[in-house]
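tool_log.txt
---
The assistant was asked to compare two proteins side by side. It first ran the structure predictor on the initial sequence, then on the second. Raw inputs and outputs are pasted verbatim so the downstream comparison step can read them without reformatting.
(1)
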Amino acid sequence: MSIFKYPAKDLYSWLTERQDFLLLDVRNSKDFGRFQVESPFLFEMLNVSYFDFMEIEDECVAKVPRDKPIRIVCAKEGSAKFVAEILEKHGIDDIGYLEDGIKSWGNLLVPMLLNPDESFQLFQFIRPGKASCSYGLKYEKEMMLFDPSRNSAFYLEFARENDCKIVKTFETHLQADYISGSRVLSETAGVEFLAHGNDFGTSKISYSPVQDGETYSFPGNGPEVTVFFTPGHTPGSTSFIIDGKYFISGDSIFIQSVGRPDLGGQVDAWSDILFDTLQKIKGIDGDMIVLPGHYISWEEANSDLNFSATLNQVSNFNKDILAMDNKSDFLTFIKGNMREQPPEYATIRLINGNFEQVDNDKAEELDLGKNECAASAYAAQQ
């Protein structure tokens, strides 16, 4: 079998279908340690730098098994192809290398239909490389988005394939961990941009402000979207309730953690606000399906490999956090369970407020890597 190039979506399929292969990551150890391919199931992965393949070829080739397919990942594609050619020269076949490198994995979006038996369609777009989720709500010929990533072309193509038009895009908050696609969708496709003024009021973005308790609807008998103000992660953090059943929680609460209130540099004040918000969330229907903005690991996925759970389940996962009955203890927990936020987050916030613009290569660099938005004992230990 000759060397071939494969797209990120194929890698995702191989991983979730539990195919037996070796994933050979030939980036340097620092980049590999910062961000690597993850899967809901165990798989074999090996990190050997392509520089090592250049300098100590035979020793590196000896580390690669000959009894299974080899799928190579690198930063931009070229190094993976180079290593593939070395392996082929040494008699190893069935070798593929990732198209466009690790950034294509970072930008991959996997659509999952969450409610196949209803009159409307609610999609979760899983971004495995960022451990984040965006959402699409479709009814007849229209679609609303929630927290789209910068891969705006994907959402437009998805809408075209599903015979609908994107009419609104909601932001749950001013994102710090990834570059949002809402502004681009608004500017290039005429999609209405909606967000809370506490986060976007000083931005250089034309948007429609949302208010707690407001509802948005589709023509006819489509589902309603209700604004549910949940500040704390940021001052303008907002959740959205879909048809009284689904709770798009943004970064207020996740399946096995809660949002961190320190990304804006005001951890004491925002921690108190987040504490009040969590009390508010505890008061809603426990059967509501929580749809988070992020996840920590694939352990949070359900048997359908999507990220959703009832509020009762989420409350049980987070029972130690939600059991705190005063702001002082909560602040102590927050401060004790924070990882240092990545330095690029400050720049991403500026980009998402349209205060700063960067070229595509810089955007790719800033946008790469898992999110760091959760407050949990697990996060602190990493």
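(2)
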Amino acid sequence: MDLTQKQIDYCMECGVCTGSCPVSRVLPSFSPRQIVKRAMKESDGDLSRAHEIWACLSCARCSTRCPVEIDFPEFIRSFRQKARMTGNVPFESHHGILQSIAELQCGEVRQQRTDWARETGGFADTGDYFYFVGCLPYFEVIFSYLNISPIRGAQGVLTILNKMGITPVISNEERCCGHDALWSGNEETFRKLAKRNMEVITASGAKTVLFSCPEGYSTFKKYYPRYFGALPFDVLHMTEFLTRELPGSGLTFKPSQNGALTYHDPCRLGRGSGLYEQPRDLLKQIPDSRLMEMGRNKENALCCGTSAWMECSNCSKAMRIERLEEALQTGAHTLITACPKCHIHLSCAQGTAGLDVKVTDLYAYLSQGLSESDDG
């Protein structure tokens, strides 16, 4: 057993995990406490055959409240690889297209990942900064039916970086970070994708890798070193980088015309990485911007309802609608998020529920708010 599995021996069966779990609220049959209890009594093989291990969102809301600090998401992740070996697999969302794309990227595939960047600004093949775009070019095509443009977040990042005098590396050879494969028990695919990314970034000569996707950031920061040792470059989330560099860049923002807005904390950025204040500090730099906090925010924020493109259900949709209604309760009609998946999931629910709230990407919002006099 690894350390996480050994921790279950200290479980006090207090029920805090189940009481905190957003899945348990809408699906009473799911209980983190009961899963831990089963692991204490049964063999690994028994739990590996249970479909409940796929229902966990790995949002870490339970772990942040656990009095004995059991890392429940990591505990679940350790069983998912074993589950695949027994034939226990998750229900893949969107007919498995995202999983298929990740598998294709493991091999020799020619990608057109940079067309959006050519239309937006300047980028290079080598340099100090590597902008890891992630799966946004694929999301742009797959989720066009939602009438949103996920790639606008990346365009916002490139626009801001260029205006700050930075020409980042953006590569056609970049692969999916492997987050979804890792969290769905497909470690072999994760290793292949990660190895290729390490080779591409190292060849670029980059000293710092910037991420706008929380999942890419947390995967590189936490898991790449486990598999490859100390990384030969620094890893920074864009909110960290911009909070540090933007104040001295000379860039300014136009007064906001959107009135009140609220911010949704992505699980991997907030509870997963501890980055709560940085996105808020960036939004507060916009004059006349009124940031209204939802009742559940920061470490208590509600997950957007789906993880790793699997097990999307009525349960997931109920969570999203609950989150959108919570946003409206603040008086804001603009919901900002720093995660492309949260943007997609919440926009999907907004479209079907017809709630009067606009879901917007943080970087698209920031780039649109730059003063016109800022020419870089």
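---
observation on (2): The longest helix spans residues 187-204. The radius of gyration is 20 Å.
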